[in-house]
Amino acid sequence: MKSLIRVGLLITVLLALLTTGGAFAQQQLSVGRDYTLLKPPQPTDSGKKIEVIEFFWYGCIHCYHLEAPLKEWLKHKPADADFRYVPAIFDAASWGPLARAFYALDAMGLAGKHHDDIFNAIHRDHQKGIVADPRLLADWLSGKGVDKQKFLDTYNSFAVVSRTKRSEDITRSYDIPGTPALVVDGRYLTAPSMTVNSDGSVNYERFFQVVDQLIARARKDRAGQK
Question: The pTM is what?
Answer without folding.
Answer: 0.86
